[in-house]
Amino acid sequence: MTERLVLRQLKLGDAPELFAYFAKDEVTEYYDLDSFTEQQQAASLIQRWNERFDRQDGIRWGIALKSEDRIIGTCGFHSWTKEHAKAEIGYELSPAYWQQGIMSEALGSVIPYGFESMGLNRIEAFIDPDNISSRKLLEKAGLREEGLLRDYFYEKGRFVDAVLFARLKRDC
Fold first, then answer.
1. Any idea where the N-acetyltransferase domain is (predicted)?
2. 85-122 in b/e burial notation, b at 16+ Cβ within 10 A?
């Protein structure tokens, strides 16, 4: 929990909220998913994230305002490699809540959780070079740019570059 937010486990009943914003092209523009066309896609995504948690491969929290119990975004860790004490951070937010400091507030709790409770030494993020908002968010959260990875991902039928950001536990 933060001042304005509740971070909680996602449930299948959250699928309509996830679908509502994952159906928007501006949300999936820099995401490795196509815009959703059916609510079942959101339910499947929730299931995958919860299965990842059950396998202890990662954790994804739903983000809700304390004043409403409605999911407006998610954030968490995936690609958790315990032997190397590192994980990748990911997030998205409904456009109605962009530019309000919500994701910065969420990451302000999630990043310390990664270092303190998950035993991470390194938190990474890979973003599209054109995603200026994500760049600013990560820099504000204390991640540093480490380099450009050319044609690093194959998404939506094409190769795309990625900029690698990272924060080390000793940077805290």
1. 5-161
2. ebbbbbbbbbeeeeeeebbebbbbebbeebbeebebeb
Is residue 77 within 8 Å of residue 86, measured between CB atoms?
no
Cβ atoms of residues 129 and 161 within 8 Å: yes
With CA atoms as reference, report the closest residue to 111 among 74, 164, 58, 75.
75
Mean pLDDT value across the chain: 96
52: CATH: 3.40.630.30
Tell whether the model's pLDDT for residue 69 goes beyond 90. Answer: no
Which residue range is the domain that position 52 belongs to?
5-123
pTM: 0.94
Does residue 128 lie in a domain region?
no
